[in-house]
Design goal:
This protein is about 35% helix and about 15% strand. It is an alpha/beta fold and about 475 residues long. It has three domains: about 20-135, Alpha-helical ferredoxin (Fumarate Reductase Iron-sulfur Protein, Chain B, domain 2); about 150-240 and about 405-480, FAD/NAD(P)-binding domain, CATH 3.50.50.60; about 250-400, FAD/NAD(P)-binding domain (3-Layer(bba) Sandwich), CATH 3.50.50.60. Strands 3-2-1-4-15 form a five-stranded parallel β-sheet, sandwiched between helices. Strands 6-13-7-8-9 form a five-stranded parallel β-sheet. A three-stranded antiparallel β-sheet has the order 10-11-12, with no helix packed on it. Helix 16 (about 330-340) links the parallel strand 8 (about 315-320) and strand 9. The longest helix has 30 residues, at about 450-480. The radius of gyration is 23 Å and the shape is globular. The N and C termini lie far apart (about 60 Å). About 45% of the residues are buried. This is Glutamate synthase, small subunit. GO terms for molecular function: 4 iron, 4 sulfur cluster binding; glutamate synthase (NADPH) activity; metal ion binding. It comes from Hyphomonas neptunium (strain ATCC 15444).
Amino acid sequence: MAERMLQFTKVSRAMPKKRSAKERAEDFREIYGEFSPDAAKAQASRCSQCGVPFCQQGCPLQNNIPDWLKLAAEDRLEEAWRVSSATNNMPEICGRICPQDRLCEGICTIEQSGHGTVTIGSVEKYITDTAWAEGWIQPIKPPRERTQSAGIIGAGPGGLAAAEQLRRKGYQVTVYDAYDRGGGLLMYGIPGFKLEKDVVERRIHHLEASGISFRFNTRIGADMSLADLREQHDTVLIATGVYAAKDLKCPGVGAEGVLPALDYLTASNRVDLGDTVEAYDAGVLNAEGKRVVVIGGGDTAMDCVRTAIRQGAKSVTCLYRRDRVNMPGSQREVQNAEEEGVVFEWLANPEAIIDSKGGKVKAVRASRMKLGEPDASGRQSPVKTGETFDVKADMVIKALGFDPEDLPALFNETSLTVNRWGAVRVDYATLETSLPGVYAAGDIVRGASLVVWAIKDGRDAAEAMHKAMRAAEAAAKVAAE
């Protein structure tokens, strides 16, 4: 029987069952269980079906959230999946890793009225996992095959979304990626306790079965040039993401045991996938038995502290220069980390890395901070109080964010223009770069951001590429007549 909607006054908000902190700290499996069918329907039925759905406005993809919540509440799951997947190329991934507390759930109307938000992300995950299990997700079969082709640089979420959209229109699509597997940071940056790797692999296999070609271990600029790519394809998309780690600017940063976050997370994810990683086996990228200090307050920092716990660190401390309310990472992730034993030192800014006579890190000296006047972003600026303290450390992980790599140099393409931060310049109406027929999307354009934004950009770029190729095809037909 279909559930009635607007049940938020009778049905309390509930998440899928979460494994205990002790249990989940011993492995890299996802920490939340699955909704039962009855629980999913009940939670979906809490939606107030707003006339102006703020949740949809808070979603970069403008997902039709109230529609698929209603369908889920009525047990019309295949229809719910079709509505959900119409605007999102990987809803099972967004349902797991989107910071819903900062997006759709954060501005849910019933959350604002004090009844607790609808658990949108968990219902989204349930719908799409059910679609996979029931076999509703089948390889793409375009209505007609086109001879034109697209080359996509980067197999992360932006590149994969664009590849799928173009393939649906019948284009021949090849994705090039420097890694040996598809997924980008979905595979190598985000730990398994947030996103198990078979979920990503399943999506890649689906795209391969749909006729999309993947060329892994291929670096543009080294293994083939951007000029070669433009010669081979009618259009090209740059969706490389940003991988240049922002560095810590303080004395002692070169000490042994001070590591970039991505190196650390990539090693951990490779081990989780069954790969052999020499630096991990040698203990360089392994936190087991160590006192770990992570510097930063974003989602990458949360991934690092929670990974260190699972590797058996002796202690894990996170230093962040602002307070908890002003941190950029998900509050849900902070709560999970605290449950698992991470210690947070709020309003603490690293001043120096202290090393031993042998050059190994032994502590981080930090300044106590207070929040002063707002800066240009509107956030209160941290100001030193004059007090310092030391945190013992055997491993220090820098999780300060990422900048774009120097693509004009890497691609040996000086005509590719970038802005003062190194991000690729595009025409924002079309996402076309300074090179005709070459487009860019995702973090390499907007800077380090969320997976859901990369998906949106990939979809937008694919539509612009389609229009350009269709126009070129029409012009060619006129010229031939």
